Amino acid sequence: MANRTSSRNNYNRSSNRNRRRRRRSRNRRRRMMPVLAGVLFIVLVLAVVLIAGVIRKYSLSDERADQMAYFGLEADDEVAVILQNEQAELHGLLIDGQPYVNFETVQNSLNSRFYWDANENQLLYALPDNLVKVPVGSSEYYIGKDRQNFNYNIVKTEGNDTYVALDFVKQYTDLEYQLYDSPNRVEILYQWGTQNVATLKDDEAVRQKAGIKSPILTDGKKGDTLTVLDTEEGIEDWTKVRTADGYIGYVRNKRLGSVEAQELASSGDFQAPVYTNISKDYTINMAWHNVTTAAANDTVLSTIASTKGLTTISPTWFTIGDNDGNLDSIASAEYVNYAHQSGLEVWGMIDNFKEGVDTYEVLSYTSKRENLINQLIAQAIQYGLDGINVDFEKLSSETGIHFIEFVRELSIKCRSNNLVLSVDNYVPKAYSSHYYRAEQGVVADYVIIMGYDEHFAGSEESGSVASIGFVRDGIEQTLAEVPAEKVINAVPFYTRLWQETPKTEEEIAAEDTTAVDYKYIPYKLSSQALGMQAVEDVLTANGATPTWDDTTAQYYAEFEKDGSTFKVWMEEEKSIEEKAKLLKEYNLAGIAEWKLGLEKSSIWDIILKYVN
């Protein structure tokens, strides 16, 4: 009995402990529930944030680009100009619904033949037979003396900017354009030929940059044809395109169909003007006759008599006389008659060598160019000239655009008076690109390369006047811009005798060695230009024997005298023949020589071999 009671008590105590344990466990669980709920909530929030971040990162942005900012427009009358596949830096104007383009854009991109005279406020365009003139703020313009009406103002100016009605530009340019609004923009097509296109396989946003977060420029629709542009390096999965309404942006490659070539052609309404030229049916052999006084014209007979195979003579008769464009002339009717009786054409040369005359000042005014041209043509007619040779040298880069306009305008008068127009040019280098040789090749009859002065009086080091490599390079560079049938290469009848005198220690010490362009040259350099026979006489007198140099294709000689070293790269029969051979090699229109009186008589037999 006692044992049963004891067992029951033990059982009760155990049960009580279990119940208390269970109650404590339930209490702990109840206390943990809020904590677990909080943790779970945080996990869920983090998951949502993470998922939202991923979605944001990889989802397409629907942000729209600021259209006015994209096109760089600030005012309602401004119009963005899209030139083929890129936007012009300078905007245009929209006036009474008509688009106007900044003149710089017109000249640099659409048609370089347009010319703006800022001094006399008129726009010009040189046609083959007439000069088009447009005054500012007028709906009227002139083709020669004929007045025309355009219905609205052609040229507008705002401050220093000039704007030209696009429809007027279109009259003289093979272009087509489309005007759009919201925002104002004009898309101009003017480069015709093959372009790459692709079709959208589905609706696709055209974005400002290559990326799904880039703002949307416009909405492309399934089936839209886009012009495919070159895409910058490093951009994958995207293609740069131009839409039909002038937006230039990016689309995803996966939405773009295959790229195909498409021919882009103009409507065919435009008829390009034809700048007719005089082209001789023989190889030209022209020589300049350096005539500095009227009395020197009397030497024409003896000068011609010493030549052989000459077709053309160019006396140096004309020069720009003053800053108003008046002409100085020493032309002679007797000279022309003698030349014609000898079977020679006479191309009177005009230069810009007169001291005190500012070539820029003359050529940058239409009225002064006109004055100069009219006097020059009047002289040509009065004296019965066959042509005019233009030799304007040392032109500044700022003068170049006015110089080529002078050549265009002179070509009109030469064309109408059956006068040959030739223009002298340096061997092409970067510093002479403003002579616009390619345009000369269109409007002039002949482009003459002055294939000499490789080293000249102002050179820092002695060297050849016309090495064969220099001459060849001049021809090849010119032929890259001018047709061979218009190119004449001129050779020198002179060379330079160089004198190198060692500098003293005092002279060397006085040099500014910190100058950016400083180059140490241990001698003082001077030179004199000598004719062929004069050089041979100098070498004979000093016991110097010339040796042939294959690199320059010239005989080279040097000698010491009075503490100086004298050097010369000769021009004589063999060197001239090497240059004359290029006439046939490149199928040139002819050869020219500077200048008569410096050659040996035997030279003419050499040249004759290559002009017949």
Terminal Cα span: 156 Å
pLDDT < 50 stretches: none
User: What number is the mean pLDDT?
Assistant: 93
The share of residues in extended strands comes to 25-35%
CATH class of the largest domain, anyone? Alpha Beta
Could you please describe the fold and organization of this structure?
- With 612 residues, the protein is an alpha/beta fold.
- The protein folds into three domains: 117 residues, Copper Amine Oxidase, Chain A, domain 1; 72 residues, Roll (SH3 type barrels); 250 residues, TIM Barrel.
- Helix content is 30%, strand content 29%.
- It is built from 15 helices and 35 strands.
- The strands form six sheets. Strands 1, 2, 3, 4, 10, 11, 12 and 13 form an eight-stranded mixed beta sheet that branches. An eight-stranded parallel barrel has the order 21-22-25-26-27-28-29-35, surrounded by five helices.
- The chain is elongated and about 150 Å long.
- The N and C termini lie far apart (156 Å).
- The mean pLDDT is 93.
List keywords for this structure.
612 residues; alpha/beta; Copper Amine Oxidase, Chain A, domain 1; SH3 type barrels; TIM Barrel; 3 domains; eight-stranded mixed beta sheet; eight-stranded parallel barrel; 15 helices
Topology:
Layout (H helix, E strand, L loop, with lengths): L1 H57 L8 H4 L7 E6 L2 E2 L4 E4 L2 E5 H8 L3 E4 L4 E5 L4 E5 L4 E4 L2 E4 L5 E4 L2 E5 H6 L4 E5 L4 E5 L3 E7 L4 E4 L8 E5 L4 E4 L9 E5 L5 E5 L7 E5 L19 E6 L10 H6 L6 E4 L2 E3 L6 E3 L3 H9 L3 E7 L7 H5 L2 H18 L3 E5 L8 H17 L3 E7 L10 H7 L2 E5 L17 H12 L7 E6 L1 E9 L2 H5 L13 E9 H10 L5 E3 L4 E8 L2 E6 L3 H13 L4 E5 L8 H9 L1
Parallel strand pairs: 1-13, 21-22, 21-35, 22-25, 23-25, 25-26, 26-27, 27-28, 28-29, 29-35
Antiparallel strand pairs: 1-2, 1-3, 3-4, 4-11, 5-6, 6-7, 7-8, 8-9, 10-11, 12-13, 14-17, 14-20, 15-16, 17-18, 18-19, 23-24, 30-31, 30-34, 32-33, 33-34
Helix pairs in contact: 8-9, 14-15
